[in-house]
Design goal:
alpha/beta; 8-stranded parallel β-barrel; 11 helices; about 40% helix; about 15% strand; globular
Length: about 350
Amino acid sequence: MTYRLSVLDQSPIAQGSDAAQALRNTLDLASTADALGYHRYWLAEHHASRSLAGVAPEALIGPVALATRRIRVGSGGVMLPHYSPFKVAETFSMLSALAPGRIDLGLGRAPGSDQRTAFALQRDRSKRMPSDFPEQLDELTAYLDGTMAPDHPFAALQHLMPTGGGTPELWMLGSSPDSAIWAAERGLPYCFADFINSDGAHLAQHYRRSFRPSARLADPYVMVATWTIAAPTAQEAERLAAPARMMFAHLIAGTPIPVPPVEEALAWLEANPDANRRSRRTSLGTPAEVRRGLDEVAADYGADELMLVNILPDHAARRRSYELMAAEYGLAPSAEAA
């Protein structure tokens, strides 16, 4: 293996269940990933969703960090346009004090919601918020690094961050050209969402070519988040993929639903063969088959790390998928974490 393996958790809500159970599942899966030897565990941000419970990664990172011992924990990601850079810097400095050396701050520009919900998240509803993500990113970085110009009106605040845990590892997330450009210009590690856009290899290449070393990172570093479902048989893995396909088809149609059971999803997909035409690359099958698929993803992007993500209604099946891949790759289990 020439790349690290990590986990992205969107805290799926199964039909007939609720967010409380989804969050308990997240804590359990994080503890499992920690014990299995995965490198990092990120929590997603999605708003006004019937199927995903992770509305606030910054609120979930602390409990996950306390439920684990060695794995890095972070946001995949914080949607910065919704928030004050100062508030985000304070929050993640505090999380770093809680779990020194283990906190990642992954930043995204997408709303993580529909436009109505994005507008509801605004404090000022008198107008649409301006598109000023690069300025927000630079202000946030200045707070964390203590590099704000002395004449900046908020300069004194950079020295008042919670201390004792160092600074979080800052990441740029994305699935479009802008994110690759910003990551390269600022010398940040870059995580590409292949599970959203599977045509991003050229953006990773652009990032590497354009990368400018920074105090945070000397060389470019690419992580790819990609759909992954492992099961004892290929047939079982194909079955497990059906609920997410049905869920996404309903989301695209504007009728969001919780994650349905496998049998219901299979029946619905058979009755609606033209549903969900969007192509989402998925590495699925037996562990060996999945590994071949992941090797192809890593080769396409020149990835240093892969972040495995899936949405399944059965928590035991999710755990098993990650357990199978940890065994396939020979990840070193942590006795301390276990």
